[in-house]
């Protein structure tokens, strides 16, 4: 896509050093769910949910967390339609990334987030979480689901795209 600052999966992995941590992002209209990898980039864990205010404030909080946790890569959920096409939510996500890229040099890539919120919500219901508790957890858990899916893909079968030369 023209003017899209995101990197392909392979270029993103090539841009990172061995101990660079990643943040996964579930970008919503009211909140931004965040997840963080361990230093070995094997496990994603929920980090925080940012209540959206203004773009500048949201990005300042995100970049503060990147600095605090030694994060050098961002994996942003791309909300594709079920048939793989892009709708208005994808356009909004891509616009967010274009604006974010003007504020940081941190590499950014997308990850297909179809059904992430539905899967997390189903898991929270099965765990008998109250509606209020689910609302509190769902965004950062969806970010964790997105980031873990990414990690599972790049670390598949004992080989890692991170290690390729």
UniProtKB/TrEMBL annotation:
GO biological process: rRNA 5'-end processing
Segments forming domain YqgF/RNase H-like: 20-120
Enzyme Commission number, as recorded: 3.1.-.-
Pfam families: RuvX
Gene3D superfamilies the record matches: YqgF/RNase H-like domain
Record's subcellular location: Cytoplasm
GO molecular function: hydrolase activity, acting on ester bonds; nuclease activity
Any GO CC annotation of this UniProt entry: cytosol
Keywords from the UniProt entry: Cytoplasm, Hydrolase, Nuclease, Ribosome biogenesis
Alphabetical list of CDD domains matching this protein: YqgF (cd16964)
Record's function text: Could be a nuclease involved in processing of the 5'-end of pre-16S rRNA.
Similarity comment text for this entry: Belongs to the YqgF HJR family.
UniProt protein name: Putative pre-16S rRNA nuclease
Species per Swiss-Prot/TrEMBL record: Pseudovibrio denitrificans
């Amino acid at each position: 896509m023209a003017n899209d600052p995101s990197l392909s999966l392979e270029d993103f992995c090539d841009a990172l050093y061995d101990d660079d941590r990643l943040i996964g992002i579930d970008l919503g209209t009211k909140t931004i769910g965040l997840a963080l990898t361990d230093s070995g980039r094997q496990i994603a864990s929920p980090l925080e949910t940012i209540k959206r205010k203004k773009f500048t404030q949201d990005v300042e909080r995100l970049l503060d967390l990147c600095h605090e946790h030694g994060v050098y890569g961002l994996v942003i959920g791309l909300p594709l339609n079920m048939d793989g096409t892009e709708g208005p939510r994808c356009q909004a996500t891509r616009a967010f990334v274009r604006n974010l890229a003007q504020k940081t040099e941190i590499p950014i890539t997308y990850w297909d987030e179809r059904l992430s919120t539905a899967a997390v919500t189903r898991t929270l219901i099965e765990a008998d979480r109250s509606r209020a508790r689910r609302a509190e957890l769902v965004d950062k858990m969806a970010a964790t689901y997105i980031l873990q899916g990414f990690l599972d893909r790049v670390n598949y079968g004992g080989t890692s795209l991170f290690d390729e030369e």
